[in-house]
Amino acid sequence: MTVAAPDPRKDLIGLTREELAAEMAAIDAEPFRARQLWHWLYHRGATEFTAMTSLAKAFRARLASHYRIGRPEVARSQTSSDGTRKWLLRFDDGQEAESVHIPEADRGTLCVSSQVGCTLNCRFCHTGTQLLVRNLGAAEIVGQIMLARDQLGEWPSPRDDRQLTNIVLMGMGEPLYNYDNVAKALKIAMDGEGLSVSKRKITLSTAGVVPLIKRCGEQLGVNLAISLHATNDELRDELVPLNKKYPLAELLQACREYPGAHNARRITFEYVMLKGINDAPADARELVRLLAGIPAKVNLIPFNPWPGARYECSSDAAIQRFSDIVFAAGYSAPVRMPRGRDILAACGQLKSDSIRKRARPPAEAPAPTSWPADLRGP
Q: Domain check: are 64 and 50 in the same one?
């Protein structure tokens, strides 16, 4: 694969309002230009400066000489028989990640990736078989939302009747191991004068990076989902190796203390159903015990197979029995219907062919080792 020479112009996508204002000051533009640009970039979805017709032609030309408006390249687009769409997205350095749009009658959910590959190596997850290549930058994260809007024809940002209503950070990677870029991207997405996605429509899923869970709640206020999958440390150590660093007791305490969590905004616990591994009635009863005191709901996820997977999906009867026990204890426990299985777009099936290069990634592509030492993977 040949990677085009990098565009030397600075990408405006992914800049905060303050950063955008600083760029305008750097080229001696009036301060109000930053707000105009924000409107064109994030409300109108402009991909070329020539489309910004409220700006003087000479100013548009000046912008084009200094800046660009980035979008991920769609390397491959697939549509499932159930309407789910998956995009393999290629970034400026040639690395790739996947993003998925799931249409439903009352909503449309975009599953967003935060990293190329993943460092966690969860045993049931296809992404976990791909070593971490690098973090995605804020522009590459928010760019997935903008690309989906492009593909769905949703510019200007619609107030009603959206095909893209919800965002879930449940794609490739562990979002809290790329917190700064994820937070920056989500703040742009939530801005009311731009993409205008309500924080109540955004869910961040983590395998349990305990030190950053509280910070996420305080700074972003989005919905929290915990990738749980086991009810004891021994099994969770195997399925979710991050548990060795942040065991269940610490994780559940962080959930009890999550800012803004209450019965109307419950924490979601994701639980993949693995035949003969974690699907016994005793597991369901132990799950109920663990969740005591947490405003919680449980998403039961039938295991979605992928090439080389060592697990099998629990039977329908076992899943229903598990769900009934959790429901009887007062917790919502719906079974998440698999979507996009035929194109490997379902939960736990995402993966790209990117591999880590020996050379240091370019400056706009943050190196994966940029986390604080105490937050690096196991």
A: yes
Per-residue pLDDT of the chain (378 residues; tens, 9 = 90+): 555 677 899 999 999 999 999 999 999 999 999 999 999 999 999 999 999 999 999 999 999 999 999 999 999 999 999 999 999 999 999 999 999 999 998 899 999 999 999 888 888 887 777 889 999 999 999 999 999 999 999 999 877 778 999 999 999 999 999 999 999 999 999 999 989 999 999 999 999 999 999 999 999 999 999 999 999 999 999 999 999 999 999 999 999 999 988 888 999 999 999 999 999 999 999 999 999 999 999 999 999 887 888 899 999 999 999 999 999 999 999 998 878 777 876 677 577 777 766 444 434 333 333 334 344 444
Q: Are residues 220 and 88 in the same domain?
A: yes
Q: Which of 175, 179, 170, 219 is nearest to 199 (CA)?
A: 219
- Total structural domains in the chain? 2
Same domain, 249 and 264: yes
pTM (predicted TM-score) = 0.90
Is 83 found in the same domain as 31? Answer: no
| 330, part of any domain | yes
Q: Which residues have a Cβ under 8 Å from the Cβ of 71 and sit 6 or more positions away? A: 13, 47, 143, 146, 147, 150
Type of residue numbered 319: I
205 and 343 in a single domain? The answer is yes
The whole domain housing 217 covers 73-375
* CA-based nearest residue to 295, from 324, 257, 249: 257
Q: Are residues 134 and 25 in the same domain?
A: no
Given 68, 92, 114, the domain boundary residue is 68
Residue that is last in its domain, among 32, 53, 68: 68
106 CB burial (10 A radius; 0-12, 13-18, 19+): exposed
Please identify every residue annotated as catalytic: 98, 347
